[in-house]
Every structure is written in C-alpha cells, then in structure tokens.
C-alpha cells in the first residue's frame, strides 16, 4: 500500500461530518446504487450479510419516517429535506445472529450493520454528499412505513443529500492516549 492511498483514506475520514442541512436537489439513482454497493461489500460475521436497506426517495414517505418513525422528544424535521433516507435493518441468521450472541455476549449483526453503514457513509463522503446517522427511531413504525416483513428489524436511518452549507469544524475528539491501552 502506498502512502498516497493511506493519506487519501485518512483525509476522507477527517472530511466526514454529520450533515443536517441539505439542498433539495435529487441524488442520481446511479450514485445511490454506487453507495449501496460499497455498503454491500462490507465484511460480516460468517459472511451472513444481515443488513437490509430501504432507499426512500419519495417525499411523502420521507416525511412519514421523520414524523412517525422517530422517537418523540427531538425534532428532526431537517431529515425530511434530505432527498434520500436509507433505512438500515437487520435480518438475523439463526446460528450466527441468535445463538452465537447468546454464547459470546457479542451482538454480531449490530457490528456488521455498523460496518456496512459506515462503508455507505464514507462512500457518500467521497462523492461529495452529506449524511447523518439517526438511531432515535421507532422500529415497528419504521418497519410498517417501508413495508418490511417481520423478520427484518429496522435499526437506524441515514440521511443523504448534497450539503447546503460548507462542512462545520469537527467537534473535539478524544486523543489516542485517552482511548487506547497498549499492552
């Protein structure tokens, strides 16, 4: 691996921000497909790929997701302005996603979905798009809105669109020494 590629990825990670102000301009379907393809290629426990995605571009459905699918208490009307909302869900395999977590205490499907979601977010960032993870959801309502079967459990939304404002300065992050133990 060359140092140029390492710098490119580090720059990409530093560019990523949670975007809460979007232009209403549509995101081309081929761009959305490219972003989904990056998420699809994420690693997963036993390669079970538990992630499922709903791509919501219909304005009325995006508004329903925001008004009915989010937990009360935090207003997020800005999310409905994003021209795309991804719904991220999990479809669990019996052994890998139900039995193994009981034995190990590790929720593999959540780890897998997090990796896939971050692949999605980083690909969007590379293409100049803004995203924001939203975990403050009501899974049953979201499932009903996107018409998923009962074996898929919504876990999060990710908004996607062209940022209306330049990226904000990053919030302070803990230093490596504050979060790392070397042994």
Helix content: 40-55%
| Global structural class | alpha+beta
Find the count of extended strands (DSSP E, 2+ residues): 4
User: Helix tally?
Assistant: 7
Strand order of the largest sheet: 1-2-4-3
What this model shows, in words?
This protein is α+β, with helices and mostly antiparallel strands. Helices cover 42% and strands 16% of the residues. It has a four-stranded antiparallel sheet, with helices on both faces. Helix 2 runs antiparallel to helix 5 and helix 3 runs antiparallel to helix 6. The longest helix is centred in the middle third of the chain and has 19 residues. It is globular, with a radius of gyration of 17 Å. The two termini are 26 Å apart.
In short:
Helix content is 42%, strand content 16%.
List keywords for this structure.
183 residues, alpha+beta, four-stranded antiparallel beta sheet, 4 strands, 16% strand
Strand-helix topology:
Elements: H1 3-15, H2 29-40, E1 51-56, H3 59-68, E2 84-91, H4 94-104, H5 108-126, E3 130-134, H6 139-146, E4 152-161, H7 176-179
Antiparallel strand pairs: 1-2, 2-4, 3-4
Helix pairs in contact: 2-5, 3-6
């Amino acid at each position: 691996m060359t140092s140029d590629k390492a710098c490119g990825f580090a720059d990409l990670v530093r560019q990523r921000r949670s975007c809460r102000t979007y232009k209403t301009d549509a995101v081309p379907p081929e761009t959305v497909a490219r972003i989904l393809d990056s998420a699809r290629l994420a690693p997963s426990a036993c390669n079970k790929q538990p992630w499922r995605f709903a791509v919501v571009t219909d304005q009325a459905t995006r508004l329903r997701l925001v008004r009915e699918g989010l937990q009360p208490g935090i207003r997020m009307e800005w999310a409905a302005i994003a021209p795309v909302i991804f719904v991220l869900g999990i479809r669990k395999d019996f052994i890998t996603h139900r039995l193994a977590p009981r034995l190990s205490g590790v929720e593999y499907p959540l780890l897998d979905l997090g990796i896939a979601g971050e692949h999605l977010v980083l690909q969007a960032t590379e293409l100049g798009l803004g995203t924001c993870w939203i975990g403050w959801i009501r899974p049953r309502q979201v499932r009903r809105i996107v018409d998923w079967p009962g074996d898929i459990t919504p876990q999060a939304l990710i908004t996607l669109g062209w940022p209306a404002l330049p990226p904000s300065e990053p919030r302070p992050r803990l230093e490596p020494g504050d979060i790392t133990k070397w042994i």
